[in-house]
């Protein structure tokens, strides 16, 4: 009997627009990347990644253990889901959406592994999924949808690999400290393509101010002015709350030149060094 673990991560075979993802064997082909030959010389799926049918929709079930044993492959699977606008949620969340309380619903296993080729959208399907004439929506990301910020923030913070741990840290720790998330969503996409994480704080040196912790746009959605829109929205929030300063830290290096240019264009100035002491390096 095949039963999904409530904590398993599900890449659901429907796009943000509610369309069934194509090609029809995408789940088997994606899981085939991790397949191997068994004792009968037949390809079999990896124990932590398997294709399943859930309510007649092809999906990929991923055990949380995968991000520990093969973080590179886990990152690849998450990037694949984001690039193709596929929903990512736990099995328990999927059941809750369907109004099913029990986590013991049996999914249907799919056939043995097939060719190890990652599926991609055809040009016609890509065109159908994209509509540049519709403006992207900027809105706050609430606690119930924190996972929508994971894909973008994992680009900025490569150490982020566990979506469940990410949601737990944001909702239970950082939001309690005043952390808020803004996201830009293109039509039909369930994941934000640009994200800004910030918090209001007060200290002796700067008084009441807003500190931007995270600001990122997913690479393929850059050059649309999304970073500017997010900064302008934070400035609007600051003025509305009587906050006179906005702070942001940014690493140095040639790869950060574009980000620095945007900050300068929006009135930011370099005002201090940022020192870090790594205690493990002290003798």
UniProtKB/TrEMBL annotation:
<keyword id="KW-0012">Acyltransferase</keyword>
<dbReference type="Pfam" id="PF12112">
    <property type="entry name" value="DUF3579"/>
</dbReference>
<dbReference type="InterPro" id="IPR000182">
    <property type="entry name" value="GNAT_dom"/>
</dbReference>
<dbReference type="Pfam" id="PF00583">
    <property type="entry name" value="Acetyltransf_1"/>
</dbReference>
<feature type="domain" description="N-acetyltransferase">
    <location>
        <begin position="136"/>
        <end position="283"/>
    </location>
</feature>
<dbReference type="InterPro" id="IPR016181">
    <property type="entry name" value="Acyl_CoA_acyltransferase"/>
</dbReference>
<keyword id="KW-0808">Transferase</keyword>
<protein>
    <submittedName>
        <fullName>GNAT family N-acetyltransferase</fullName>
        <ecNumber>2.3.1.-</ecNumber>
    </submittedName>
</protein>
<dbReference type="GO" id="GO:0016747">
    <property type="term" value="F:acyltransferase activity, transferring groups other than amino-acyl groups"/>
</dbReference>
<dbReference type="InterPro" id="IPR050680">
    <property type="entry name" value="YpeA/RimI_acetyltransf"/>
</dbReference>
<dbReference type="InterPro" id="IPR021969">
    <property type="entry name" value="DUF3579"/>
</dbReference>
């Amino acid at each position: 009997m095949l039963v999904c673990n409530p904590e398993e991560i599900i890449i659901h075979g429907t796009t943000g627009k509610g369309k069934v993802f194509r090609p029809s064997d995408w789940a088997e082909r994606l899981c085939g990347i991790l397949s191997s030959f068994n004792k009968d010389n037949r390809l079999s799926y990896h124990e932590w990644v398997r294709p399943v049918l859930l309510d007649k929709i092809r999906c990929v079930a991923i055990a949380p253990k995968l991000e520990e044993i093969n973080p590179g492959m886990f990152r690849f699977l998450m990037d694949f889901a984001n690039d193709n606008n596929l929903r990512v949620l736990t099995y328990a969340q999927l059941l809750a959406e369907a109004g099913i309380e029990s986590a013991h619903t049996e999914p249907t296993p799919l056939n043995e592994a097939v060719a190890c080729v990652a599926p991609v959208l055809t040009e016609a399907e890509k065109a159908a999924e994209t509509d540049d004439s519709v403006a992207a929506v900027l809105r706050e990301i609430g606690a119930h949808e924190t996972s929508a910020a994971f894909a973008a923030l994992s680009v900025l913070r490569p150490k982020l690999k566990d979506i469940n741990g990410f949601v737990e840290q944001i909702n239970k720790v950082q939001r309690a400290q005043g952390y808020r998330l803004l996201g830009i969503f293109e039509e039909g996409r369930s994941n934000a393509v640009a994200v800004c994480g910030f918090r209001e704080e007060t200290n002796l040196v700067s008084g009441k101010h807003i500190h931007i912790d995270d600001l990122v746009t997913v690479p393929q959605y850059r050059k649309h002015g999304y970073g500017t829109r997010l900064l302008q929205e934070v400035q609007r929030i600051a003025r509305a709350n009587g906050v006179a300063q906005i702070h942001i830290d940014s690493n140095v290096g040639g790869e950060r030149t574009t980000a620095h240019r945007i900050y300068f264009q929006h009135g930011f100035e370099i005002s201090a060094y940022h020192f870090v002491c790594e205690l493990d390096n002290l003798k």
